[in-house]
Design a protein that fits this description.
By secondary structure, this protein is mainly alpha-helical. The protein has 18 helices and two strands. It has a two-stranded antiparallel ribbon.
């Protein structure tokens, strides 16, 4: 059973707005002793636990985090399920289930905050979002949760800055952006600290490469959807991105990047459509459909054999337990992409859609 004594002492002290020195003075120990407790480098003598718990007005079990330890596995399971949902209704149902059952867990608060911003009305939920953000920043002791909350908050401020009546400017957003760590400070970049004999070192290297590719594609995509650039430029850039993916994933299994590969072919098709080249557009959409069919026909767990990812296991549910590529591509082609009714009435286009209905 995991004990969360160090985290709880730190959290409870902060909630009372106490310094480590003030707590040490009350308990009759040194400041360094309290500091060591909170870092988990040492623990209070067992005889001190009732005194510490009494000071914070909690039970010894609460101080130790016993109830939290008992619930931890269930929380982790529910969080994994929530993070893998792609259906909006399932996302909503799961986050409210989590919020109602574990309202004080910062990981749950983080996901609720993200839900309000990305799947609900961010402006209408402004007070809730602000409260959740401040609570996480002021009370959560895990840097990863606090930084992720900042990421959500940046997106939230960016949404508000688009509204001239919100009172929020990009300057408010930029202030938080400047507080964020650089990409090099992400945990994936520390694989080099692991000894060569470590059993997970190779896997960590592969994860670092895939994370860098993920970030690269996200960055390039900003050009692809920016109307300041010509369709010809965006066509050339998208083709280069597709060539790059095929170079990296030379076995045809795109792992975590399957969704991006589908989107890139769809985007390329739309750019050709914009230039009036319907044949090239249909060719790109056909490739998109072929990839969707291939993805859906794959086993849930596959082993990748590209040079950079040899032996790496890919779990399709990484993209979501309810993710079906055919359904996603069909929705894009029939509902999301601004294609003319005349184009969609063509026999070649109808044939593509029929492929996705098998």
């Amino acid at each position: 059973m995991t004990v969360y004594l160090n985290e709880n002492i730190k959290r409870l002290r902060r909630e009372k707005n106490l310094t480590q020195e003030a707590l040490a003075e009350f308990l009759g120990v040194t400041f360094q002793t309290v500091s060591n407790w909170e870092r988990g480098e040492s623990y209070p003598d067992i005889t001190m636990l009732p005194e510490i718990a009494g000071f914070f007005r909690v039970s010894v079990d609460e101080l130790l985090g016993v109830s939290r330890a008992e619930n931890e596995e269930e929380i982790k399971r529910l969080l994994r399920e929530h993070d893998n949902f792609t259906d909006n209704e399932l996302i909503k149902e799961s986050i409210y289930q989590l919020k109602d059952k574990y309202p004080n867990d910062f990981r749950v608060q983080l996901r609720y905050m993200g839900y309000l911003i990305n799947f609900d009305d961010a402006v209408q939920n402004a007070k809730k979002i602000e409260s959740l953000y401040q609570n996480i920043q002021n009370k959560c002791t895990k840097d990863s949760v606090r930084i992720c909350a900042k990421r959500f908050y940046i997106h939230y401020l960016e949404l508000l800055a688009r509204d001239e009546n919100s009172g929020i400017t990009f300057g408010d957003c930029e202030k938080i952006i400047n507080e964020m760590p650089r990409m090099r400070d992400g945990k994936e970049m520390y694989f080099n600290c692991y000894p060569e004999s470590h059993p997970e070192r190779d896997e960590l290297i592969q994860e670092a490469i895939e994370e860098e590719i993920f970030l690269l594609d996200n960055t390039i995509s900003r050009y692809l959807y920016d109307d300041r650039y010509s369709s010809e430029y965006r066509i050339a850039l998208t083709e280069k991105a597709i060539d790059f993916f095929n170079f990296i994933y030379d076995d045809g299994n795109y792992g975590r990047m399957w969704r991006f590969m589908l989107y890139n072919h769809g985007h390329l098709g739309m750019r050709y459509y914009d230039t009036g080249n319907n044949e090239k557009a249909l060719e790109c959409f056909r490739k998109m459909c072929d990839l969707a069919l291939k993805f859906d026909s794959m086993d849930r767990i596959t082993v990748m054999h590209s040079v950079m990812f040899e032996g790496k296991e890919f779990d399709k549910q990484t993209l979501g337990t309810t993710y079906v590529a055919k359904m996603q591509v069909k929705e894009l082609l029939t509902e999301k992409y601004p294609l003319s009714e005349e184009f969609k009435a063509s026999e070649k286009f109808k044939k593509l859609i029929s492929m996705l209905e098998v």
